[in-house]
């Protein structure tokens, strides 16, 4: 099996044969998410569920020191449409912890030769949770986190952070560095030119290195009859996909096209995996229930920031309209009657 080939003593990735039976299929998660029949009975609602629903009010009160409509943004290059503040920090760490739970504490699914992992890049690293985690776990690897936002700290000797636009030429401290693994997570709605970004990844990787990208697909779905016809959650997904990409000049739909674009950039053995992530703790499966809690928190700490700048600057919404849309969606979650899930799409590919 290609993803386990290094376990079987094959030293060089280039020599591995490709098979579609691999660790991408081996996460021990149910394909159809089982429903907890107690979900939605308020007598059994857990404290943590109540707490999760307060994330929006935290966004508008406790974190009250931001520069545009109550949120703080950075303006490096042509800026970024999403805030960079304490709420977005909570959003990032929630995504990071959720991914560790989904992937059973693995930082990547690509079949890299871990014993020979020397150079790793994390593109759009944000606060660098993933980059620091990999640097900690692989002390012989040099990890570079690249982002449009400056990084506040540098605590591990083998982890550095680079202030750069990943769609422009990469000027690395060590120009001879070629990456064994390039990781991209949660950049939907942030990048103007994906083809340029994938080309830079390709050009800066060594032959046999792997690219890995994870994106939430903005497409709320239910697997049963729990979808209300007038759902705000669903309507916001549809509005985002029909209006926000064009208005922002950045692709909110990258999950749909990244596999093809990664192939177009020259990568081979490109594989896609889709995992359904419950929105809220509605599953009877205990791991899925926890994943659902994390995803609810990710949604509640993210939604206002994903909408606010683009809707108010380009689409003529008022701040109150944005906040009302968020509150309507959160109320729908808090009613605990629906079994929404969103696909998390993972694509991996190898540089030949
Ligand atoms: C939602 S955060 C994701 C952070 C991190 N990847 C994670 O999963 O925790 C998206 C980050 O991508 C960065 N970003 C967006 N476009 C970028 C670009 N062209 N070059 C570098 N970073 C970019 C943003 O500044 C932001 O910090």
TrEMBL record:
InterPro entries: SAM-dependent_MTases_sf. GO terms for molecular function: methyltransferase activity. It comes from the Eukaryota. This is Methyltransferase domain-containing protein.
